[in-house]
Amino acid sequence: MIGPADEFGIHSHRWTPLHATVEGWVESLALAHRASLCAKQITKVTGDDVDGIALDGYEPVREVKGLADTWWRGTDSLVAVYSGEADCLSFPAARTALIYSGLDEWGPGG
């Protein structure tokens, strides 16, 4: 859905904005596709284990304009943290992060 401030989000039990703009959401889809093609390894982390991901040394990927769903750029990896659906459904165990590693040839900067 599109929110009152043009943010992109989902609505079930409540409204949860995922990205500040529709364009940010599209950027996140494009980034996920490209990263999945180029990563040497993809690791899925769920639930409370998402809190254990060390993002020190990572910077936010501002192009995705993440609110509940965010992307982080490291030296040779990208981390996508998806919290929006879990928040919307009041089900924290559904939080998911995908760690795309081995992006040294492509470069997470694109």
Describe this structure in words.
- The protein has 110 residues and is an alpha+beta fold.
- The chain has one domain (8-101).
- It has two helices and seven strands.
- Strands 3-7-6-5-4 form a five-stranded antiparallel β-sheet. A two-stranded antiparallel ribbon has the order 1-2.
- A hairpin with a 3-residue loop joins β5 and β6 (77-82).
- The radius of gyration is 14 Å and the shape is globular.
Uncertain residue ranges: none
Biggest β-sheet: count, sense, barrel? 5 strands, antiparallel
- The span between the termini is 28 Å
Q: What class do helices, strands and sheet pairing give?
A: alpha+beta
**Overall tally of domains:** 1
According to DSSP, the number of beta strands is: 7
Run of helices and strands: EEHEEEEHE
Number of helices: 2
Rg for CA atoms = 14 Å
Shape: globular
User: How helical, in percent, are the residues?
Assistant: 10-25%
Q: Would you tell me the overall average pLDDT?
A: 93
DSSP strand content: 25-35%
Give the strand order, joined by hyphens, for the main sheet: 3-7-6-5-4
